[in-house]
Structures are given as C-alpha cells and as structure tokens.
Amino acid sequence: MPPRFAHPDPASDEGGWWSQMDREEQRLRASGFLIRDKALNEMVSGIACRLAGAHCPDLRVYLVRTPLFNAMMAPNGMMQIWSGLLLRMTNEAQLAAVIGHEMGHYLERHSIDRIRSAKTATAVGHYLGLALGAVRSSNAGHFANAADIALIAGFLSYGRDQEREADRIGLNLMTQAGYAPLEASRVWEQMLEEVRADPMEGEDFWRASILFATHPPARERRETLAELAGSAGGRTGEAEYRAALAAQRPAFVSDELKRRKFLQTRVLFERLLKAVPDDGEIQYALGEAFRMRDGVGDAQSALDAYRKAQAMRGSPPELYRSMGLLERQRGQHAEARASFARYLELKPGASDAELVRRYMASE
Amino acid sequence: MMRALRALLPLALLALASCAPMVMVAPGPAAVRDDFSVTVDSIWNRLTYPGIVFMAPGASEIWTAEGIPLDVLAFYIGVREGDALGRVLERGGKPLASYRAGMTPHEIVELYEQLVTQDGSAFTLGRLAPHRFGGADGFRFEYALTRKHDGLALSGVAYGAVIGKRLTLMAFTAPRMYYFAKYLPRVEAMAGTAQIKY
Fold first, then answer.
1. Is the ipTM here above 0.90?
2. pTM given for the model
C-alpha cells in the first residue's frame, strides 16, 4: 500500500481540482439526500477504515439516498455510496468488495490520471461537477439528459487494466481485513440476475449507473473475481449488516419501488427473500410492486404476497391497508372492512386513520 | 439563508433561461381554466408556460407568490378517467399511471407522488384526511419533498376532490424553512373558497 497522500500544492493543477472537489463535498454535506443514520454510517465507515489501513484518516464516506447501484471515490478522499447499492448488498463482505474496489482506484490515483488526460478545462469541470455532484444531476430512473451520462461515462471510464488493478487491490484489501473474498464475485452475479430479468430495462439500468456504465462487463468481472478468490474463507457479516441497515431499509425499499422497474425490483426482492425467507418487510414490498404495476392479474399476485407476509417477521401494519385498498377495488367489501380494521388496530394513531375509518363506513 | 439562496440560483437561472412569463392574479375571485375558481386575498403570479416546472409537470395551471424556485401552487383541474395527472418529465420517460374513477384518496396520492418524484425528488406523505373541497367530500394531505436538484427540504399541502368521476387537485409546495409557513394560511383560506363547476 502506498503511503498516505499529502494535500497537493494549491497552486498546482491537482491542487485546483482538490479545491473543486472540496466545494462539491461541502454541497454534499448540506444535501437533504445525505443519510445521517448513525448505525449505518458507523458500519460503512468501519468497513472502509478496516480496508484503508493507514489511509483511514484521509477517508470520508457519505451515504446518499439515491436508488441506484453506485459507489465512487474522489482523489481528495471523499467516497459516496448510494442507497440503491446498500439495499442490494446482503452482507458486510459484499460491501467491502465494492469499497475495496473504489479504494483500489484511489490508492493507484486512477482518477487523477483521468482528469489529467482530459483535454480541456471544460472537460475537467464536467468531470468534477457532474461526476462528483452526480447526486444533484441524476435522478431515480435516468439522468436529466443523455448527454450527462455520456459525459460522466466518458470521464470516469478507467481503462480496463485500471479496473483489473482495482479489482485485484480490492480483493486483497477485503481478504486482509478478514472478509470472504468470494463475496466479491457474488456482487456481480447478483447484478447480472437483475439485468437479465429484462433486457430493455437492463440496458437502461446500466446506463443509469455510473459504476456500470464504465466498468468492464459484469460477467467478466464475476468470473475473474471468483477465480482470484479461489477457496479462501473469511467473514461475511450478514447479521451485522442487516442490523445496521434495519432502520433505513424501509425508506430504501420504498425508493426502489418508485423506480418503477418492476422486473428488476421483483428479482431483487425475491433474492432478498431467498436469503431471509421470513422477511415480512420485503414480502410486503413484493406485494406493493405488483399493486403499483397494476397490470392484468397483478391485484391477485399482490394479495397473495400480502397474505404470505402476514405471518412473517417485521411486516408493517400498512400491509393491511394495501390489502383493504385492493379488496375494495374488487368489491370485496367485508374483506376490505376487516383489513382496514386490522390496520387501525395495529396503528391506532395512523396519520390517515380518519380517512381509513371513512372507507370502512362506506364499505 | 445565503446558502439556501445560493442553492436556489441554478433553478432561478433555469426559469430565466426558459423565459417563464407571469401575469398577476389580483385579489378577488380568480378562475383557473373555465371550471375552477378560488377567491384570493393577496397577489399571486400565474405562469403562462407552466410545463417547465419540475415540482408540477403538466399541471393545468401554476401560480407562485415569491417565484418558481421558491413556491409552487399547482392546479390539476378535471382530470378524466384514463388520463395521467400531469405529464412525463422527460421525452421517452416511463408513462405515468392513469387516473381511474373510484380511486381512493390513497391511490390518488400515489399518482401525485409519482408525478412529482420523476426527477428523483424524495416524497414523504404526512397526514391524509377527509376534507371538504370545491363543494365535495374530498381530502387533504400534507407531504415533505426533498428536491433532487439542490437537496432542499420542501413542505407541501394538497386538496383534492372527485366530482362526476373527474379529479381536481390543488397542491402548494414551498421550502420548509420560512416560506411554507408564511403562505400556508393564505393557501388554506384559498382552498376553502374553491368552486368546481364541471
């Protein structure tokens, strides 16, 4: 590992870029999209620090509420991890794999190479403004315009050799920190599953994620990473990961539903349910995905999902409200009344209680 | 405050660049389209090209008190069955869900949420309750919105009613700090005078 990087001379080109990055970081700190949850921040920063070793004091990790799979690290030590990525990881080792990879780019100063090779000041400005401030210019499903993503993809596209180097470093860092290296290839395997679910949506998904738009194909990375990991063992940290994510996960799940990428969302939720079969929160969310898609047969699929969730751990009271809304739509008045009553029983102080009582009276 | 203003600057520039002309709405009775009216007690400004406003894409009409980067009063008048509440923000974007007669206020709120979060803004529903609006048994809801563009925290209140299977919605959104509270009483009073004439 190289020694810690000194702050560059402010008069140098790199010093100028650092100042710009620092300004972007200031904006990020004030953003309403920054996730301030203590347990989650401590878990993620803890992993980052364990991986960074001597570089830990130079590292600042920011969790950003955006439902896309993305992480990035700037040369000044600012790392961003988006909520869509956090929702998709199933344990600490997987998150360590992503952080390790980004740290690989940082330690090898790949993005400084990229900025330096940008030909014009405008290009550098785009890199700093768009890539680091992507949280501002992106949105849940796509970027503000196609030109933005093309720019970001162009400026962030590390060379294939740089990617391989980052993968190798990331894997070493996570192994040294005691994490199971095989989880690195699982990250990409999981993403492939989601993308395969719908080629059209998949294409959009790759475009919408900076990480995906610019890295070599997931398939290649999965295979290389699995090979490099070999049969080495290590910690996965599933329970710890779930516990740290618990308070924020309902919001992340709700953001995921709002992407309206049903096929990908379904694969994601089904995968999470395979990992924890009695996860009532995710089973309920699967029902919500069907209800919101509102296609032929979706109401029945949603009701089936809600019924399954009833017996599971952590299913929210809103489950009964959603059931009631669907039953009402289908003219099942007695069932709707019972579902609404159950909702109010579980959540007597609900902020919509008066309205739900009115639904019941009209059933 | 300075930081808030600086954060708003890009939006202000956007509005300027897009040439958003406004006309004054004077105190007294004011019509929105042909079939909705309210009585206002202070000056508002009506946008003549409302399509550019991210906080209310495709609204029938948009008013503002301080200017678009700050506050938006959006009217969605007489939405018919099978139509979306507003419009898709970006060409080629995923179509919005359509309004259906018989939808509950909960489902109508979901339509509204989908409309105003197309740019990636974060929406959180607050109180949702029955409320008389436009001479009908309608509903009122409160919400919080974190604007994608600048991460600014906004608050909102909306009033809705379905008459003759057509939906009318009036929604006010402004920065949580200072502006929302400043205009809320005026908006509440205005909502109380709403008349739906279709």
1. no
2. 0.88
